[in-house]
Amino acid sequence: MYFLTEEERKQLNKGYLPRSRQMEIAEELRGWNWHQPPLAPVYDLKLALYEVANSYCTSNRDLYLKRIDRIKTKPNLAMIRGKVFHEILVRVLVRAKRLIYEKGVDHFQEILRKLSTPLDLNFLTVYRSQLTEEEFSELQKRASIIANFENARVAARIQEILVKQPHIQEDSLATLAIPVVVEQKLDGTFFGLSASLSADAFTFSEPMVLDLKFGEPKKFHRLSTTGYALVMEAIHEYPINLGCIVYAEFKGDRLIVKKDIHIIDDELRQWFIEERDQKMRMIYEEIDPGLGNCYDSCPYILQCRG
Ligand code: SF4
Fold first, then answer.
1. Average of pLDDT values for 296-301?
2. N or C, which terminus of the chain has less Cβ within 10 Å?
3. How much distance in Å is there from the Cα of 143 to the middle of ligand 1?
4. pTM of the predicted model, to two decimals?
5. Mind listing the pLDDT tens digit for each residue in 202-257?
6. Which CATH number fits domain 6-286: 3.30.1890, 3.40.50, 1.10.8, 3.90.320?
7. Cβ atoms within 10 A of the Cβ of 133, count?
8. Cα 243 to ligand 1 centroid, rounded to whole Å
9. What are the extents of the domains in the chain?
10. From edge to edge, which strands make up the β-sheet containing 208-214?
């Protein structure tokens, strides 16, 4: 899912990349300037990146209830699905890299054969008690569709590279076939964020942060890629100008994948910092923001609406 199609790659190379290189980003909004305003956090608090970026509750009361009233909720179906589907991708991509290193290029047929065997989905059983029979069986089915889709994509990429590169070795094959780091761990304490952030994926063939979403596209989703880009700029001291939200949804048994590639411009950077500051203030000063535009599956619906 993190791999670009031919059309997306063309769009990236001929559109987003040149535009992002020409675009001037205000120096004070580059992550490496984390130690001075406006990036330096005003409050001595640590937020998870998703706590800054998510605005499913329009008033942010969900964050207030979690952090001030310390209310713990059970994950809803959408949260469980998202967690499981992310985990599937990590498992598929890590397994594929491991196979390349363990088997070696000379045994590529075995790599391809193993990639065509179904992923072990036993880890899903921990969710059985939290879901109805129907929901659980649907979760298993969709998890298996995602795993098969991704395995086939990886296998095709390995074959494409092998036919072009007769002398390639394991390290290069793994890097070219799967040019992403999944679940990259980052320390966001510079920005008042958690010390153990985890970016869904980072592709090093073109420095771009990827975030995977299962569900309806929302404008604020771009805040996740923006937050990770700022943190990476702070850690590595090089510019990250591009983000990509990968939207995956099911139409019946069909998996549909769309990508929102975007430039991480001044507007997004400012928006992220404003959200962080506003949410930190709400927590620091314990200001109950009141009800937002509630949605039925909000895990706090009982506390807010009774
Ligand atoms: S129930 Fe409504 S106000 Fe309460 S957290 Fe959820 S969306 Fe926000």
1. 91
2. C
3. 29
4. 0.92
5. 887 778 999 999 989 999 999 999 999 999 999 999 999 999 999 999 998 899 99
6. 3.90.320
7. 8
8. 29
9. 6-286
10. 180-186, 197-203, 208-214, 242-251, 254-263
